[in-house]
What does this fold into?
Amino acid sequence: MPDAPLVIIGTGLAGYNLAREFRKHDSETPLLLITADDGRSYSKPMLSTGFAMNKDADALGMLSAGQMAIQLNAEIRTHTRVTRLDPDNRRVWIGNEPVPYRDLVLAWGAQTIQVPIAGDAQDAIFPINDLLDYGRFREAARGKQRVLIVGAGLIGCEFANDLLHGGYEVELVAPCEQIMPSLLPVDVAAAVQRGLESLGARFHLGPVLERLDRSGDALEAQLSDGQRLSCDLVVSAVGLRPRTELAAAAGLEVNRGITVDRMLQTSTNHVYALGDCAEVGGLNLLYVMPLMSGVRALAQTLSGKPTSVAYGPMPITVKTPVCPLVVSPPAAGSDGHWSVEGEGSDLKALFRGIDGNLLGYALTGAAVRERLDLNKQLPPVLAEVPQLLSLKSSE
Ligand SMILES: Cc1cc2nc3c(=O)[nH]c(=O)nc-3n(C[C@H](O)[C@H](O)[C@H](O)COP(=O)(O)OP(=O)(O)OC[C@H]3O[C@@H](n4cnc5c(N)ncnc54)[C@H](O)[C@@H]3O)c2cc1C
It folds into this structure.
């Protein structure tokens, strides 16, 4: 397929950054990006800061698809959904239209998990996972006052802080005993929760939202513990699931994400996966830092210089400015324990393995200043592959 383009599916941070990085190495190969949305470039992490910054979806959007096409010397097909992969014939299908590729990169992200909620007000439940979702929510929130957030993970808490800054009343409901249970030790979670409560947030931890019904101009939410809450809008922040269905249907290996090797190649030649949809070395990390490491490696591989991806420490800055938080969670299943120092909202929690080595941390308030020192002590999230290490040491 010498004349077929490099095809990238998705124009999120993974797709656009890969295209940009690829163009630094190769200005000639035809490049085609296909996206189900309008192709505007934007930084997804900014979606949970828009109310505090008073920015609507248009203000958060950066360049249009047309401007990106010029910048990247690429064709960009917007509002176009790829419906089937056909790796045996090196093409993808958009409905009945086949599109050939030289190499294919799946950068189609993850979709919001929808939990079943009964009642007649489904249209008042807003997932926010892209700029278009955000635009719809901003529109609906105009003139409204009370927002119920379903989910108390990282995204739910970030939206809570942002909406509180934007002048909204916020309640959160989640079936867990503490906020951000997969990321934080209990004392740190409590400090962040207190911070949000000091702005007026009200938490309902334990029950789930069972029903949402219209009640006059407002909504009535019914929780599984019998509580009834009145609100105007609901934000759904229960989590994301990598898009794997089309890959699995085409015979590609999938696990939680689309399984790729350290070159980000799927189980099929000439097909790669990057970003929220990819599972690299058993890790499906839905953050920007790992995605950007993948971008740099894959751009080189696609330009003829096979390059493995490796991740150093990957701390996450959580956007809850009322209680600044940086966390580097220990790898799943790590043997060890948390110890917590400090008081009030200035906490330093360290997770040490049984040999005493630092494996993770969570810092709040003034303690976040220690993150750079601590990063130096952390093990890499995904170590360099041994061949590359031995190649370097023989140089
Ligand atoms: C509110 C919020 C705040 C966040 N804050 C942070 C943060 O502070 N720090 C951090 O590290 N991470 C943060 N994240 C996570 C981070 O933003 C994501 O990991 C990253 O943006 C994912 O980029 P992506 O390109 O893989 O996926 P996406 O941005 O989801 O892009 C997927 C693309 O694929 C397209 N697509 C999907 N299916 C198809 C199809 N069949 N055919 C054609 N196109 C298709 C979509 O239209 C879209 O263009 C946040 C996420 C959210 C939701």
Notes: The pocket of flavin-adenine dinucleotide is lined by residues 9-15, 34-37, 44-45, 47-48, 81-82, 107-109, 128-130, 155, 243, 275-276, 286-289, 291, 319 (CB under 6 Å). Residues 288-302 form the longest helix (15 residues). The chain has three domains: 6-110+241-302, 114-236, 324-377. Confidence is low (pLDDT under 50) at residues 389-395.
